[in-house]
Write a structure and sequence with these properties.
This protein has 25 helices and two strands. It is mainly α.
């Protein structure tokens, strides 16, 4: 059944009813887990554990509400430091480094094994050892830069989404340690926000439980109370564990959908449907999360959404379909959060194995978005943006009428936008030159009607309304991205 709601003059249609905030955020946490190389469902399990600790501490309802959002969105800033970390380790899998670094300290053999595998992969042993040694020397400087990026971006997103100032502060100070050795401000003891301290204990409980079991996780808490963790919150966690019920629906091997249902049951404050304006804000925020992962795609999703919206309007689609196109375009690359920056930022043509990883991202997008009832159609449209009319596209090799008009619009817009945007490795390409490149694939791969509509837009003087040039601070953070690459390599990045 299709329902329609309106706000500020815009009409939005949903396939299966409206969407609640907790339903949408809980689904998008699977995208955040990908960025960190976490075990799927990590943010959801962390949310359950943290909320149970907050309840045991008798936190007031307003604090519990902000804790809920802080726990779900604690990793929303993590994509912003992915390219920097990849550069630091010399092109290794930054997701593996992020996941591995949470499991121990510098004296842990697991850390050294993880680094040896992921630092300067393919290099000789001496070169690799020297890079690891340099990383040790630069550890504090690198950590400061990485955590400042993550913490600032995460808090900024929560504030933009109006999740609450305390929730934003909790995310900003997530990586502070009780003894003052954490980041980004080396806060100590009770000067660290209470919600940050709860989030820290909860996320580490899940990380270590997923890796080594519940008892090992509790041992880590005990060993690190007074250094990493607030002793009182550790005591609360142990007390809850002793009573039973602490791990209900959030054991490491529990079905993630059971865990998600338990997280949704905790939401007693905002089950009203999201307004179209707030829904757009959330979609834009997660588009920014995707785009922040690589300087090669900085602001790309926003650009694709702008182009797709203009093209859908040019073709005369009804208003509700225009909004479907816009949101699908904003979220079309969510699945790329699963792809390591060692592949996304590679200065050269991807190997067959790397292409295989890249080609999976539309299926990951579909899997994440389809968890939202109202996004079932949107998920399909978003996942079809690399399909081609002759069946040569991916992930499903669809042909002709099997590909929706909305997906065809996004496919043309995606390739057009990728080439007209300014990137670290090249200047923006003239729109008319881009049209000439795209025309080679019309009508056997790209839809002729969509291409003609795009041509009409360009002829009318339409341009992307947002400033899409890469900001200088990103170039500074990822110097390797500033290297010039060939037009062939640039085209392969656009096609991916």
């Amino acid at each position: 059944m299709r329902e329609t709601s309106s706000s500020f003059g815009n009409t939005v249609s949903y396939e299966n009813g409206a969407v609640a905030l907790s339903e949408l955020l809980s689904a998008l946490t699977f995208a955040l887990d990908l960025t960190e190389g976490a075990v799927p469902g990590h943010a959801l399990r962390t949310c359950l554990l943290g909320m149970r600790m907050g309840s045991a501490m008798d936190l007031p309802a307003e604090l519990m509400r902000e804790l809920y959002y802080a726990l779900l969105l604690k990793d929303v800033g993590c994509s912003s430091n992915a390219a920097r970390l990849c550069a630091i380790v010399g092109g290794g899998d930054e997701r593996a480094v992020k996941a591995g670094s949470k499991l121990g300290n510098a004296s842990d053999p697991k850390i050294w094994k993880m680094l040896w595998k992921n630092v300067l992969p393919g290099s000789n042993g001496v070169t690799r050892a020297l890079r690891i040694a340099k990383m040790g020397v630069d550890r504090k400087k690198n950590n400061k830069a990485l955590f400042e990026l993550r913490c600032h971006r995460g808090a900024e997103i929560l504030r933009k989404l109006e999740m609450g100032g305390l929730a934003a502060d909790a995310v900003y100070h997530l990586d502070e340690f009780w003894d003052g050795s954490g980041y980004p401000q080396h806060k100590r003891g009770t000067s660290i926000p209470l919600l940050s301290r709860i989030c820290s204990v909860a996320q580490n409980l899940d990380v270590f439980a997923s890796e080594s079991g519940i008892h090992a996780a509790l041992e880590v808490l005990g060993e690190r109370q007074g250094t990493w963790f607030d002793p009182y919150i550790v005591h609360t966690a142990k007390r809850l564990h002793a009573r039973g019920g602490m791990w209900t629906s959030c054991m490491p091997n529990d079905d993630v959908e059971i865990t998600r249902a338990a997280v949704l049951d905790l939401d007693d404050s905002e089950k009203a449907p999201l307004t179209p304006m707030r829904l757009d804000k959330i979609c834009e925020a997660f588009a920014n999360v995707v785009d922040a992962k690589s300087p090669f795609t900085y602001k790309h999703s926003i650009g694709v959404a702008e182009t797709s919206t203009a093209l859908a309007e040019q073709l005369g689609l009804p208003v509700d379909r225009v909004h479907l196109v816009r949101r699908a375009a904003l979220l079309h690359d969510v699945g790329k959060l699963r792809v390591s920056n060692s592949i996304l930022d590679k200065n050269g043509k991807p190997t067959d194995e790397e292409w295989s990883v890249i080609r999976e991202h539309p299926m990951v997008t579909r899997s994440i978005l389809s968890r939202v009832g109202a996004f079932r159609e949107l998920a399909i449209v978003a996942a079809e943006h690399h399909e081609k009319l002759d069946g040569s596209g991916y992930p499903d090799g669809l042909r002709g009428d099997q590909i929706s008009l909305e997906a065809r619009i996004i496919a043309v817009s995606d390739m057009f936008t990728a080439m007209v945007e300014k990137r670290p490795y090249r200047d923006a390409v003239d729109p008319r030159k881009v049209l000439g490149i795209l025309e080679r694939d019309v009508p056997h791969k790209l839809d002729a009607t969509c291409f003609d509509g795009l041509t009409a837009l360009v002829d009318s003087g339409w341009t992307l309304p947002r400033e899409l040039a890469l900001s200088g601070d990103v170039c500074e953070l990822v110097p390797m991205a500033a290297e010039v690459i060939s037009e062939e390599q640039a085209t392969s990045i656009a096609a991916a």
